[in-house]
Amino acid sequence: MSSEYEFIVSKTLLEKSRKLQEMQNNDGSSKAEIDYVKMEIEALVSMYDNYNNSMSYFRRAQGGRNGLREVHDKT
CA 41, 47, 48, 53 torsion: positive or negative? Predict the structure, then answer.
């Protein structure tokens, strides 16, 4: 199951990774520029992981509260 958010973050992560490779192969790139792109990649990975972790929680819990409502309604 993939959302538009996952697709966009994955696509951007791939673009930034390619950009980093090009910058590392190019002697004209400054260390500051390379470090900035690395920071962007780390942020994108974090965004992707956080989204997947939270969504997997909700996907597993789907319908889990229904049983609680039924028990509460009977009392």
Answer: positive
